[in-house]
Write a structure and sequence with these properties.
The complex is a heterodimer of chains A (200) and B (100). Chain A is mainly α and 200 residues long. Chain A has one domain. Chain A is 84% helix and 1% strand. In chain A, α5 packs antiparallel against α6 and α5 packs parallel to α7. The longest helix of chain A is centred in the C-terminal third of the chain and has 38 residues. The relative contact order of chain A is 0.11. Chain B has a single domain, classed as Arc Repressor Mutant, subunit A (Orthogonal Bundle), CATH 1.10.10.10. Helix content of chain B is 55%, strand content 19%. Chain B is built from five helices and three strands; from the N terminus they run ααβααββα. Chain B has a three-stranded antiparallel β-sheet. In chain B, β2 and β3 form a beta hairpin. In chain B, α2 crosses α4. The relative contact order of chain B is 0.20. Classes of the chains: A mainly alpha (200), B alpha+beta (100). The interface between A and B is medium-sized, with 32 and 35 residues.
Chain lengths: 200, 100
């Protein structure tokens, strides 16, 4: 076989293998949109709960956000590959979702979730933990900045008045969910177009 | 003169080689993703993946997502081993020309 195949062809095969392995490893899944979806869901739940005082505001809005996330994710996943990195980051967020669902549902049903500061501090602390874990896995400084903002909101919720802690919580949602989500989507778009240019 | 190694004919085809290399970098990949990355046609891609599956180099999982069929491919241990041996054989064949 080696008689038929020239040295250049063999070299090209080696380059092809290296390029394709790198291409697979470089694959990133697009999840920035979920930050925006959940940021909007938090605002809707806060507004609904503040204006109507309904106990259904949070569970109903969160359930809708879960349906939207799962629906859109199943549409997108058919065009993506699964990587170890993606699974590690996904595990952090899935674990956070289950923890928050069980914790807040139990606290709510048990009637122990009457202090908004406590709710905000727990939610912010957990979101800070998940953002930090994800940032350390991805080595993403901007996301670690979001973790710091969430931790600050958790501390504010523990010491400040309900009004001031509420403002910090709303600001954290804006910066760490909406703004960070949009920034992530722009970064993902840029990475995709750069890869397309490299292929062309 | 030492014996020169033979290149595995199953993965010697460029598309099959590209597919096996792509699958080495990920845990699992969808048919659509593989088609996008290789730029091949459905028919050709399906045929080459079938050859890799037949050789035991890739595993296939078929499922339905939202009533649409979805085929997921993963590289097997034998596939990984075959690619490693192929690279070693390539390097041996190239010898000093590899740095040229």
């Amino acid at each position: 076989m080696q008689d038929e195949t020239g040295t250049d062809d063999l070299k090209h095969r080696l380059i092809l293998i290296e390029t394709m392995i790198a291409e697979g490893r470089r694959t990133t899944e697009s999840w920035a949109w979920t930050f925006v979806v959940w940021g909007v869901a938090f605002y809707v739940a806060i507004a609904w709960s503040a204006f109507s005082g309904s106990a259904l505001a949070w569970p109903f809005t969160m359930a809708i956000a879960v349906v939207i996330t799962v629906g859109l994710a199943s549409l997108k996943s058919s065009r993506e590959a699964e990587t170890t990195l993606g699974r590690a980051v996904g595990a952090v967020w899935i674990a956070l979702g289950i923890t928050m669902f069980l914790l807040f549902l139990s606290l709510g049903i048990g009637g122990k979730l009457k202090d908004p500061n406590m709710f905000g501090a727990i939610a912010s602390g957990l979101l800070g933990m998940a953002n930090a874990a994800s940032a350390l896995i991805l080595r993403w400084k901007v996301q670690f900045g979001c973790a710091v903002i969430w931790w600050a909101a958790a501390v504010a919720g523990s010491f400040w008045t309900e009004k001031h802690a509420g403002i910090v919580f709303l600001a954290a949602i804006f910066f760490c969910q909406i703004a960070f989500g949009v920034y992530g989507m722009v970064q993902e778009g840029r990475a995709k177009s750069n890869r397309a240019t490299a292929h062309a | 003169m030492p014996d020169l190694p033979e290149l595995n004919p199953v993965i010697h085809g460029k598309l099959r080689l590209a597919l096996l290399s792509l699958l080495t970098g990920v845990e699992a990949a969808d048919f659509t993703w593989l088609r996008e990355k290789t730029g091949s046609t459905d028919g050709n891609l399906g045929a080459q993946l079938a050859k890799l599956e037949e050789a035991g180099y890739v595993g296939v999982e078929k499922k339905f997502v939202r009533r649409k069929p979805r085929t997921i491919y993963r590289i097997t241990r034998a596939g990984r081993q075959a690619l490693t041996e192929y690279v070693q054989a390539l390097k041996k064949l190239l010898g000093t020309a590899i740095d040229a």
